[in-house]
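Weekly puzzle thread! Below is a chain. First person to post its structure in token form gets bragging rights.
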Amino acid sequence: MKKTQLLAALLSLSVASAAFAEFEAVHTFETGGTDGITFGTSPIIADGGNGSITVIDDPYEAGNKVLELTPGVFANGTDTNNTWFDLPFPAIAGKGTVYTRIAKKGDIVDIVIGTTHVAVPAAYGDFSSIFRIEADTIIDYHDGSYTEVAGSSTEAGKWYELWIVIDTPANTYDLWVKGGNVYPTATKIASGADFRSNSTDAQNRFYARMTAGSALSPKAIDNMLFDDIYVDLSGENISTPGSTPVGTTPDGNIGSVGTGYLANIATRAFAGTGDQVLTAGFVIRDNPRRVLIRGVGPTLGGFGVAGTIVDPTISVFPGGGTEAIFTNDNWGDSSVAAEITSSASTLGAFPLDAGSADAAMVVTLNPGSYTVQVGSATAGGTGVALIEVYEVR
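Winning reply:
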């Protein structure tokens, strides 16, 4: 086995402190396909085909599995074709939080997402909490009637985090959203909205419904993606499941956030070839994690560091594996370059120079051990490099 310059670290990204509530995974779609999901369409036969649900490879984040909901084709005449699915979760009889991630594959959608207490929901009236996106990209929610969120906008091809905070006895819910250019941080967009179902029954199903409309009033054409559905039965929890709770910050480049786990690792060292390749080892525990990984060379020159590697590359390997599962050369060429920039800003990492040859990626990793190596895109290239792994919160 080749000897390497190994920077061993534990990225044990699980909440260990009882001071913070914890999410319970309902479905991450990494395994099991559509197991546990009830699916339906209305009418049963639509002109041109009904909608569907399928687990696919994430088109925006390599190495991730997601659920794709297609709206089908609108019906003839004035009939409306609907496609829906629901997924049971542990019942919230008091106050709790439902979390998911959603993404549009285009802007022409009509999607309603929320919760219900109905065993087999069949209509919009079965919703209790409601988060809606229409073809104008604007967000709505239901509070007696549909309320448009002023200044809201959603973008295709980007993941959005959604928190539904339910107060079942009060028959109300709050909505929080994070994602895109409008919501770079978690933002409350609805407060104390009334359940549409007007029910105080325990909420126990995640419910999403899409309409293709009719020939006279066509609506959805583009597909929706869903990922990482979680529930917290203990109350309001506006954090990404398994990540740093809101209100905590890392202490320095390698720091504990007071919850019993390490939030990031970062070390500067010589990146050579062969036995001198620069390698960092880390472990993801308990739940899938979104991580920012960087191999910095050229940008270090701006901080007065001499002899930096000219054109670094980064490669991620699973524990014991010899085949890289993720690689990057020039970070600006990445399909998630905007997320690399925004994540670095949120985490307090210095920005990479625009157009630089530094390497970076933001990926989702399942629980397990990993190594990341910094090499050179040029044969035989060596130099000083900074290797970093951050949890994206």
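Puzzle host: Confirmed. Bonus trivia for everyone else. Residues 1-21, 244-261 have pLDDT under 50 and may be disordered.
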